[in-house]
What we know:
The complex is a heterodimer of chains A (about 170) and B (about 675).
Chain A: H1 10-38, E1 40-44, H2 45-50, E2 60-66, E3 72-74, E4 79-86, H3 91-96, H4 100-109, E5 115-121, E6 133-140, E7 146-154
Parallel strand pairs in A: 1-2, 5-7
Antiparallel strand pairs in A: 2-4, 2-6, 3-4, 4-5, 6-7
Chain B: H1 2-30, H2 33-62, H3 69-74, H4 81-86, H5 92-112, H6 122-143, E1 149-152, E2 158-161, E3 169-170, H7 187-201, H8 203-214, H9 221-252, H10 262-285, H11 291-314, H12 329-349, H13 366-398, E4 401-403, H14 406-426, H15 439-462, H16 467-496, H17 502-512, H18 514-539, E5 541-547, E6 552-555, E7 558-570, E8 574-585, E9 588-593, E10 596-600, E11 605-609, E12 611-614, E13 618-626, E14 635-643, H19 646-663
Antiparallel strand pairs in B: 1-2, 1-3, 5-14, 6-7, 7-8, 8-9, 8-10, 10-11, 12-13, 13-14
Helix pairs in contact in B: 1-2, 1-6, 2-5, 5-6, 5-7, 6-8, 7-9, 8-9, 8-11, 9-10, 9-19, 10-11, 10-13, 11-12, 13-14, 14-16, 14-18, 15-16, 16-17, 16-18, 17-18, 18-19
Amino acid sequence: MTSAASHPSKAHRWKFIIGGILFVAAVIIMVVSASQATAEFFMTVAELEGSNQNLEGQNLRVSGAVLGETISYDSGSGLLTFTIAHIPGEEKAIEALGGLETALNQAVNNPDNPRLNVRYAGPPPDMLRHEAQAILTGTLDANGVFMAEELLLKCPSRYEEALPEQVE
Amino acid sequence: MIPAFGYLTLAIGFLLAIYGFIMSLWGIIRRSRASIESARLALLLIFPLVTVSLVALLILLLDNRFDVAYVYSVTSRDMPNYLKLTALWGGQSGSLLFWSWLLAGFSLVFSLRRWRQDYHLLPWSLLVVFLILGFFFSLNVLVEIPFERFWHLSDGGRVMAVFRPGGAWPLMPQDGQGLNPLLRHPGMIWHPPALYLGFVGFIIPFALAISTLATGRRDRRWLEISQPWVLVAWVFLTLGLVLGMRWAYDVLGWGGYWGWDPVEVSALMPWLSGTAFLHTALLQQRGRGFRRWNLALIILTFSLVLFGTFMTRSGVLSSVHSFAGSDIGTSMFIFTAVTTLGSAGLLIYRWGGQRSTFTLEFTFSREVLTIFSNLVLLSILMVCFLGVVYPIFSELLTGTQITVGPAWYERITGPLLLLLVFLMGVCPLAAFSGAKLMKMDRWVAILVPLSLLIPILIWIFGGIRNFYVLISLWVAGLAGLVILSQYIRGVFIGRQRGKKDWFSALVLPFQVNRRRFGGLLVHFGVVLISVGIIGIEGLQQETQVALNVGEGVSLGRFEFVYDGLENSVQPGNQEIVKAVLMVTRDGKPYGFLYPRRQIFYNMGMAVTQPAVKSNLARDIYAILVDGDAGPQGPATFRFFINPLISWLWIGTGVLTLGTIIAVWPTRKNRFSRPF
C-alpha cells in the first residue's frame, strides 16, 4: 500500500487513464451510432422542395402552416391527410414577419408558397385546424408525400397577449 | 395598495441584498467582523420582507385581483383556491419570486447556524449568497415584476405599471385568462416546489466551496457543513423529477412519464452531477483525496442549476414547460455564464494548492468503483448536454438543424444507466482500498447464482423473451440481492449482540449506522425505480383504435369494450366527455375504465385525462383520443399496458425514506458500532 506517498505510482495512473479513455471512446461510439440512426434534420417546406440531397428515408422534422380545407380523415383506414404551407424555420424570421400568428396567416394565403402533402396514421388531433402550426416528424416517400410519425400542433394562443382586450 | 406594498417590500429586500453584498465585500477586504455581522443582519431582514411580498401576491391571487397583470394572466374565477395558490409558480414573475423566497429562506437558515470555529468560511459564503440573491431580486424588481397593474391612460391607451401613471385610472378586467389547462392538476402543488427546493438547496455547498477556494483553504470542513444540505437538496431534486414524471403520466396522456424534453433534460443534468458529487464527497470525508474533484463537481452542479433555471424560465426552448415567454433570457444567460466562468477560474487559480496526497490503486475497491460510476454519471450528463445543444451546433456546422429525440437518448443512456445500477449493486461487495478484499468471495459465490435465477424464472413463468429486458432485470435483481444481503448481515450481527426480539434486530442497523443503512435503502429505492423503468421501457404494449359502441379490442390478455360516452357541462365554460370502457382479463371481468377529455372552450383547448387501473404487476392505461360524435357515436382510444411501472413510484418512496434516515442527526455514542 502506498497511501501515504505523495505521488501515485505511474503504473496505476496509466491504468486509470487508459480505462477512462476506453470508456469514453465506447460512449462516443454509441453517440455516433445513435445519431446516424435517429437524428432528425429540421427543414422548412421550401428547403425540402429545393433540396437536391436524396432525403428519402432520412428522419426529418418539418414545420408549416396547416391549410384547413385540405384536412381529411378516413375513419375506415385511419389515415389522416392534410397540406402544410411553408413558414420560416427561425424564430427571428417569424418575429420579423410580425409574430407567429401573422406568419401563419400569410403562409396559408400566399398561393406561391411551397406546400407539402402530409399523411399520418391516426385520428386528427384537437388542435389540427386552419392556420395552426404543425411540427411533423417522419420521412419523405418516393412521391414526395411526408409520412408523419409524430404530429405536434401549436396555435398562437391568447397567452401571448400582453394586455386584455375584452374589457372596457 | 397591496400591489404597491408587495412591490416596495420586495424592492427594500433588493436594496438590502445590495447592502449585504457591499458589507460582506468590505468585511473581506478590511477583515472587519462588524461588517460581516451587519451583512448577516441584512439576511435576517430580507427573508421576512420577501415573505411579506410573497404573501401579498398570494392575497392578490386568491382575491381575483385581475387588475394585476400577473393575476390576470394565471388565474380565473372558475379556478379552485388551491390552484389559485399554485398559480404563484404558474407564470414567469411569480415563479421567480417564489424561487427568490426559497433562496432567501435557505440563506437565512444557513447564516443562522453556529459558525464559531468555521467563521473563516462565513464572509465569502455571504458574498456568494448575496450576489445570487441580488441577481434574482433584480429580475423581479426591474424586469419581471409580479405586481404590475393595468391602467387606462387619459389619451385612451393602456399601460402596465406598479404605480399609477399621471392621469390614469385603473383597469379592472372581469375575469382572468386562467392557468394553462395543462397546469390545472394537483401535480402543480408538488412538482415545481420540490424541484425548486432541490435547485436552490445547492447554493449552500456552492457558497462554501467558493469560500474554501477564495480563502485558499485545503481542509474538508466545507463538505462536512454542507453534507446534510446536499442530501436534502438532492432528495428534493429527485422528488421534483419523479413528481414531474408522475404528472406527465397522469395528464399529458401519451402513456409515458419522461419525454426527453430539453427542459426535463436540463433538470436532470444537475441531478446527475449532484449524484456524482454526493458519492465522491463521502470519499473525501473518509480522507480519500478527491479534493479538486469535489470542488469541480459542486461548481458544475450549481452552474447546471442556473442553466436549468435559465432553460425553464427563459422560454428559449419550446416544450411543455415553456408556458411563459420572457425578456430575462439574456440577463440570465449572462449571469449563468459569468458565475460558471468565475468559479471555474477561481478553481483553476487554486488548482495547484488543492492537490491531494492520497493515491489510489487500480483494483476492485469502492474508491475505484465510485470513480467509475462518477465517470458513467458524467458521461450521461455529457450526452444530455450534447442532446440539448445538438440543434444549435448542427446548424452552425452544417447549415441544417439536426435535432435528436427520445430514441437517441434512450439508445445511449439505456446501457449507461444499466451499468450504473450494476456498479451500485456490486459496490457493497468491494472493500475500501487498503482493506483485504477477501470478504467479497464468499458473497459472490452465493449471490451471483441466486441472482441468475431471476431472469431464468421470469423467462419460464413470465413468458418474457426480450433479451435486453432479461439482462436488465438480472442486473437489478443482483443489485437488490446484494443490498438485502448487507442488511440481513446487519440484522444477524445485531441478534448476536444480544438483541433478543426480532423487531429490535430489524431496526438496529438503521439506528446504529444511519448513514450506511440509510444509503443502502436509497440504493434499494433506485433498484426498484430501475425495475419500473425496465418494465415500461422494455415491455410496454400499446394499440390505437376507433371503436363503435359495443365493439372491443384486445391487447395482451386484456380486452376493452366501448360502452358509450357521457357528456357533462362544467362551470367556467368547460365540458367533460367521459367514455365508459369495460375491461376483461382472459375473458373474466376486470373492471371499468373512464378515460376523459376536459374541453376548455375559453381557451380552445382540450386536456385528456387518462384512466389508469394500477397494481404492482402492471398498469392498464386508456386515453380517449377523440370522441365528439355524441353519446352513441364512435370514439378513438389508445390503450397501453405498462408493466411494473408502480415500482417507479414505490422506489421513489423508499429512496426518500432512506435519505431521511441518512440525514437524521445521530445521537452520538448511544450504541457502540458493531459494523
